[in-house]
Recover the amino acids of this structure.
């Protein structure tokens, strides 16, 4: 299982004043909770989270946290990051302790792969869902879920329930929906039936003009 180790220290103070003091020192407050353990109040360098974001699994990467002045956390997942609304600076982080034998629910990016025949004929690829909730063990967390669109013709669609799941993963959703579709008309013009109707109208107009002459 891929993991990344973070360095943190146990913090005693709480509240806005304590948080401001930490940030003035270049640190941010964080908490770790869950897995039948007590909530741990931590302080860490936000640069570690930026590096975590650039890892192969992004913020879904399982981490271990070495805690100076407290008990180390063998395995955890980043659950939430608060950012400043303007500067986007990292302000606070929440970690969930996890058991390697238990499944966790995470959001995984859906990535399209291949060329859809329908798109080459003028159809438009539409991807209303960019992420999918997935349940799996920490060791099975995928970087992305690949959707092969090389079989999509015009007016075809693939449902979330039809997306192939990586080994050890299962999709989690309350209501099935479209993962990706190819919508439009062949060549961006009229279909065959409309074409026939158009020809009939043209013939009728020519007959009317000849009668008037």
């Amino acid at each position: 299982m891929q993991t990344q180790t973070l360095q943190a220290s146990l913090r005693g103070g709480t509240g806005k004043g304590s948080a401001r003091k930490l940030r003035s020192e270049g640190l941010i407050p964080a908490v770790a909770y869950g897995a039948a353990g007590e909530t741990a109040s931590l302080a860490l360098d936000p640069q570690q989270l930026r590096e975590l974001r650039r890892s192969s699994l992004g913020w879904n990467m399982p981490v271990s946290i070495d805690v100076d002045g407290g008990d180390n956390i063998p395995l955890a997942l980043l659950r939430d990051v608060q950012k400043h609304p303007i500067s986007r600076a990292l302000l606070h982080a929440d970690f969930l302790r996890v058991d390697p034998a238990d499944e966790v629910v995470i959001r995984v990016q859906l990535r399209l792969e291949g060329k859809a025949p329908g798109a080459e004929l003028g159809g438009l690829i539409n991807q209303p869902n960019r992420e999918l909730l997935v349940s799996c063990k920490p060791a099975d967390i995928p970087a992305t879920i690949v959707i092969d669109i090389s079989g999509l013709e015009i007016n075809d669609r693939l449902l979330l329930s039809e997306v192939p799941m990586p080994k050890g993963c299962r999709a989690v959703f309350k209501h099935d929906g479209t993962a990706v579709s190819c919508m439009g008309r062949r060549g961006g013009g009229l279909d065959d039936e409309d074409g026939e109707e158009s020809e009939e109208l043209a013939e009728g107009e020519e007959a009317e003009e000849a009668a008037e002459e």
Q: What stands out?
A: The chain has two domains: 4-99, 105-188. The two ends are 84 Å apart (CA to CA). Helices lie at 16-24, 47-53, 117-120, 192-212.
